[in-house]
Amino acid sequence: MKIPATAHELKCYHTWMGVDGIGRTKVKKNAVVTLEDARENSALVNSFFVDEKFPLMIDSRGIQSISREARAFFTANGRDTNTIAFAILIDSAVSRVVGNFFLGINKPAVPTKLFLNEKDALQWLRNL
Amino acid sequence: MVKKKDDQYIQERTNSILDVIMSYARLEFNVQTEVSANNDVFDSIAAGVNMLGEELENSVVTIKEKESLLKEVHHRVKNNLQIIASLMNLQAANSTDPVFLELIRECKNRIDSMSIIHEMLYQSKDLSRINSTAYIHHLILGLESSFCMSNVKVDFQLDIDHGIILEADRMIPIGLILNEAISNSYKYAFPNREGVIEISFRMIDDFYVLLVKDNGIGLPEDYDVNKNSSLGLQLIATLAEQLDAKLLWLRRDGLGFEFRFQ
Question: How far is B121 from chain A (nearest CA, A)?
Fold first, then answer.
């Protein structure tokens, strides 16, 4: 996932809104994601459109670890979110385990699917 | 040379992950295994083990919180029952009517038989089940104390299977049954002021068999238990139904009851 110049840079993420109306967030290489990072990124994502809901593609391939609190926060249960679906890219050894664990244990409130490549992820989000 | 280096790497990573798994098995969650920047298969396993540890820790904490709450509930129930018993004692202190005092004692003993169960529950590690031996001993001590002024000398002969551990729901009717039967014996069975009460609680052919019997004067031969039963004897029959037990009245050489239930 190529990071555009307009992307916002956070401690663990690069996050931006695509011209196609799909939000994108890319986990930095070897990022250790905490609840604080999760909240910061979520606030940024929600600021893209205030009145409109949109899907989000999450490139988690660089992730090293994510805390339990952050995983629980990302389920979107009981919190305000403008996102309607998550497509998570997991094409690395650690991200595969993290992604599958997240889906298996945390049960996100919005439709969520794991993908090994960006093309399939985008296609799924566009067809929602 | 490369092979040896690989073997050493595999060994080290495996041991490191195994150490953490063993810690989690001991419910020690203050450790995590390293997830390196290599992003290899060991890192993926390590990441999974770490997340599993976090989930386990959360579950253990939740269970401990629930146990703590349950203990508190048993403690409060026991305290409330004791407050009721104390209020009864206060009422009794203002009366010299022997009938009223006897009624108060009967009610207080019934309350005590339930209170003991809640006391044992919050003091034990198992918050739902009661050891029958300890409970029956505790119950008898309370009844001996309650009837000490009656000057009846009772020899309790106990034969209780130490392995019988039952849920509180079932132990409460058992306690009330024993309370009624023993109280009945103390009051009516021994005009000579001494006797034997035999209590047996065993497993026989997949059935629990509870027996409580005295060697006292028993009921008159023409006494119809279905027509003339006292509240205590009616309670025994009702509690037997609650236990789904088959009740056998033993009217030879005293009075006794046998309960057979699964």
Answer: 34
